[in-house]
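---------- Forwarded message ----------

FYI, see the N-acetyltransferase domain-containing protein record below. Original note from H. follows.
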Amino acid sequence: MQLTFFDERDTTVLRSWFPSQQAVVQWAGPGVAWPLTDGFLATLLNSASQQPATLLTFTARQEGQQVAVAQLGFDWDNHLACLCRVVVNPQMRGQGLAEQMLQRLIDNAFRQPPIERIELQVYPFNGAAVRTYEKLGFVREGVRRACVAVGEERWDSAFYGLLRTEYSARSAA
């Protein structure tokens, strides 16, 4: 698997992965419209130029095909990184691609000496994502109940964290 910064050629494929507003909210949060707009996609394209990095967008490729997208954000003042907007090509789910990509992003984040914690949010009904995050060592820290409105529904959001000490212990084992 190859990780690169998200670029212009990735936008068309990414748009095709979302069939509804609910699917977009599950990936990007309640503030992002479906279909994905050019304006939103432009925010994903400036990763390579950020100094210092604040929100990097990556594309994972396998045999030249775009298989996943994820973001890694940094809060340098608080020594935090955040995994967000993780999505796998719908035709390739269930193959462990998210785990491979996320492990590389986690390794990358903890290679930054100031980073002491990586956190993320996930909707608890997304069982595949929850299992992947827990397999990677993330610990569930809490739930914001009914915090996201999606049409007539209200979704919970679970918070997960991984500390450098936990990552180091897992890596040593």
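H. also flagged this: The mean pLDDT is 95.
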